[in-house]
Design goal:
- The chain is an alpha+beta fold and 481 residues long.
- The chain contains 16 helices and 20 strands.
- Helix 11 (305-314) packs across helix 12.
- 53% of the residues are buried.
Length: 481
């Protein structure tokens, strides 16, 4: 008996099959582009997602696919797919790095229980109503990415149009509990009917259609678990289950997640969201991790990541060069969609290795700024699990441990969010119960222990000072409004 997890990420789709003991037996992935037709836009067509799914599934062993008994879903959070009544997407999906709605955030007012970012469904839908009224008029469902994909695989049956609390609570249109905030939705001028009813992440949200089964080489009629956002799925797949358990994930963006038995007090710059299991988590969410490093690698002309790593970590850390990685605005802790980045302190003797090394440090410092916000609000973290495709190189892991001042334990699971999605599928199929999850935690290996480094601490202090000094450059209109 096998269970399939689908993780619909920002730049790629990943699949993983796990067995009845939660062990991964097969995996595959396929990438796609995030396009920007105009400055600040971030979109992907749903056809690209579907093609990537079919492509990746074709590379899973046929004998593994034959034994899949349920599918679970993990998806990039915050963005939105405007869809017709039959689930047909009416335009490209608008994604979380998108900043087109940054001038519409004042409508939320203050205080809000969670920070509102322009790439969340709420601001994006307000932009849609104002700028693409023809699309808004045809819209029946405003779907989260993973909910669109599940509806597509279910043949757009009525049972497929649901969402879960972990995704809903991150739209800026719901309470931290995940329940839709009807009064807010009405005040923003959005149709309440656009928003799908809630179901538990592990409940069945439809069944695999004959057409989708044929495309993917799976059995028709198997249950489709509702699924959860990628961050709560990564927490589930990594084995986070107890109050205070913490996880750092590094991918396109970066998240620091701390599990909570009860809803934590709202804090500016941090998020309080629902977990895939119905518990809670506090999160610092940083937009510029892999996306910033990938941009720098391209700018500096490195043909491959091994070459970039080698050059960066062969270079000594510069005492004068700082890199702000905020290429697409930033969430935690600054909540500044207008933030931008770059190098400062360059000299004629600096090399591209110096610049690449400064970029790694800048990303690590951005993560540290988010972690310090969590620490300053009552959670003294000194140890975290580590997951994500952007944290494999041991030199990068060591820099992260040094900058964050934590022991990092790499989980023995290459696809944490995908594994979490597959586990939700197993619960939907009746193989596991939520009470069984602690026993499914993967192993973890100590990857890096922080080393005392006064010069690194000085560079971090300079990084924070630099951001605060240049912040007004990025946001003159917002500062004067």
């Amino acid at each position: 008996m096998r269970f399939l997890g689908i993780d619909l990420g920002t730049g790629s789709l990943k699949l993983a099959i796990i067995d009845e003991n939660g062990r991964e037996t097969a995996s595959a992935s396929a990438s796609y582009a995030v396009t920007s037709a105009r400055p600040g836009w971030a979109e992907t067509t749903v056809d690209a997602w579907h093609s990537a799914l079919v492509n990746a599934a074709s590379r899973l062993p046929a004998n593994e696919r034959d034994t899949v008994r349920a599918i679970g879903f993990s998806g990039q959070m915050h963005g939105v797919v405007p869809a017709a009544a039959d689930g047909r997407a009416l335009r490209a999906a608008m994604l979380w790095p998108d900043t087109r709605a940054r001038d519409l955030l004042d409508a939320w007012g203050l205080p809000q229980p969670n920070p509102v970012a322009p790439g969340m469904a709420g601001p994006l839908l307000r932009w849609l109503v104002q700028n693409e009224p023809h699309v808004a008029a045809e819209t029946r469902w405003a779907l989260q990415p993973k909910d669109w994909l599940r509806a597509k695989l279910g043949g757009a049956a009525s049972a497929s149009f649901v969402t879960d609390a972990s995704d809903a609570c991150a739209t800026a249109l719901a309470m931290p509990s995940g329940a839709w905030d009807d009064a807010l939705i009405e005040r923003l001028g959005l149709p309440r009917a656009w928003f799908a009813p809630l179901a538990a992440s592990h409940e069945s949200g439809g069944a695999l259609s004959d057409e989708a089964a044929s495309e993917l080489g799976l059995r028709p009629g198997i249950p489709l678990a509702v699924g959860a956002g990628d961050t709560p799925c990564a927490a589930l797949g990594s084995g986070l289950s107890s109050d205070g358990d913490a996880l750092l994930t590094t991918g396109t963006g970066g998240q620091i997640v701390v599990m909570c038995d009860e809803a934590p007090t709202p804090v500016h710059g941090l998020h309080t969201y629902r977990a895939a299991t119905g518990a809670w988590y506090r999160m610092a969410a940083m937009q510029n991790v892999g996306v910033a490093l990938e941009a720098v690698r391209g700018w500096l002309g490195y043909a491959s990541w091994p070459e970039a790593y080698e050059d960066a970590f062969a270079a000594s850390a510069s005492a004068s060069v700082s890199f702000l990685p905020y290429l697409s605005g930033e969430r935690s802790p600054w909540m500044n969609p207008d933030a931008r980045g770059g190098w400062l302190g360059l000299g004629l003797d600096d090399t591209r290795g110096t610049l690449m090394r400064a970029a790694f440090e800048g990303v690590a410092f951005a993560l540290r700024a988010g972690l310090d916000a969590i620490r300053e609000n009552g959670t003294p973290l000194d140890s975290m699990l580590l997951a994500g495709g952007g944290s494999v190189d041991p030199r990068w892991r060591q820099l992260l441990a040094d900058a964050l001042r934590v022991d990092l334990h790499a989980i023995d699971c290459p696809n944490a969010a995908t594994r979490g999605a597959a586990i939700l599928g197993g619960i939907a199929a009746g193989h596991w119960r939520v009470d069984d999850l602690a026993a499914l935690a993967p192993g973890a290996t100590l990857a890096a222990t922080p080393r005392a480094d006064a010069s690194l601490d000085e560079r971090f202090a300079r990084f924070i000072d630099l951001y605060k000094r240049v912040e007004d450059w990025f946001t003159p209109k917002r500062k004067s409004a």
